[in-house]
Amino acid sequence: MDEKSCDVELEDGNNKSRSRRKPSRSKMSAPKTAEDGPGSAEASSKSSRKKDKMSSNRSENSSSVNSSSSRHEEKGPGGAGGTMAPPPPRGQIKRFFLKFTQKMGGIEKTEYSKQFLDTIHDVENYKMVIDDLVISLMSIAQRNARWASHPMERMEFEYDDNENPYERMSPVFGTWSSLLKEPITDLNYKQIDKMGVYHRDFHRRARRALRDMRQFLCIDFPELQEARRVLNQKRQDMDYAKYELRNAKSPEVIEMKNQVYEHSQKLFEEELQKVLRMLDAFPKQKESHLRNVQAFHTVYRYYHAQVDHATKMKL
C-alpha cells in the first residue's frame, strides 16, 4: 500500500509539476508580447515601408525599361524618325556567284557616260606624258644617275653633305695642283666654292618649281585611282542589289531588298560625286603644271647665269 501510494503521489506530483510548468510558460510569454508591443509595431511599419519602396522601385524600373524599349522601337528601322541600318556585307561565295552571273549577262551593268569615260582616259594619258616629262627634267637637274630619285615621283635628286661634285673638287685640286702646268690659285678655289653653292641652290629651286607636278604624281593621281576603284565596287554592289530586288518574290523580301538597293545607290552617288570633283580640278592642275615647267627653265637659266658670273669673278 505504501509503494502504491508512493507511486500515486509521484504521478500526482508529476502531473502537478507539469500543470505548474504550463502556466509558467504562458506567464513567461505574456510579458514579452506586452513589453515588445510598440517595437513590434514599429518594425512592422518599417517592413511595410520597405516593401512599399521596393515595389515602387520595381514599378519605376519596369516603367523605365518599357519607356527605353519603346524609344528603341521608335528609333529603329521601322520608326518614323529612325535611320535605316546599313545592309550586312555579302559573303565571298555570294559575290562570286553574282559576279559569274554578271559576266554571263544575267545582271545588267550600269554604264558610265561617254564624257566621264573620255575624261578618265585623258587623265590617264596625261599621267603618262607627265612621267616622261619629269624624267627629262630630272635628267637635266641631276646628271649623275646614282643620285636619281627612287621612286621617280618624289624628285629627290639633291646631293648629300660633302657629296656635291664642286665640293669634292677642292681637295682634289689641292692634291694634284703640283702636277699641273698652271698651279691652282686662290681665285680658282673661290670660284669652285661659289659654283658648289650655286649648284645646291639650283637643285633646291628646281625641286620647289616642280611641286605641283610632284603633288599630282604622289597624291592626286593615286587618290583618283583609289576613288575609281571604290566607285566601281559601289557600282557593282548597286547592280547586285538591283538584280536581287528584281528576283525577290515575297513582300518581306521585296521590302528588305529595296532598302538594300536604296542604300547601295546612295553610296554609289556619294562616291561618284567625289570622283567628279577630282576630275573637275584636272584642268587647273594642267595649267599649274605648265607654270611649273616654265619656272624650272627659269631657274635653270638663272643657274647658268650664276655659274658664268662665278667664272668671271676676280679677287
What does the model show?
There is one protein chain. With 315 residues, this protein is mostly helical. It folds into two domains: 59 residues; 216 residues, Arfaptin homology (AH) domain/BAR domain (Substrate Binding Domain Of Dnak, Chain:A, Domain 2), CATH 1.20.1270.60. Helix 7 runs antiparallel to helix 9. The relative contact order is 0.08. The N terminus is likely disordered.
Number of strands: 0
Order of helices and strands: HHHHHHHHH
Q: Which structural class matches the secondary elements?
A: mainly alpha
Strand content: under 5%
Instruction: Fill in the CATH topology of the largest domain.
Output: Substrate Binding Domain Of Dnak, Chain:A, Domain 2
Main sheet summary? none
Sequence stretches where pLDDT stays below 50 over 5 or more residues: 1-44, 59-82
CATH class of the largest domain: Mainly Alpha
- Overall mean pLDDT stands at 75
End-to-end CA span: 165 Å
Cα shape: rod-shaped
Q: So how many helices?
A: 9
Task: Count the domains.
Answer: 2
Q: What is the CATH architecture descriptor of the largest domain?
A: Up-down Bundle
Radius of gyration equals 48 Å
Helix content: over 70%
Relevant CATH superfamily of the largest domain: Arfaptin homology (AH) domain/BAR domain
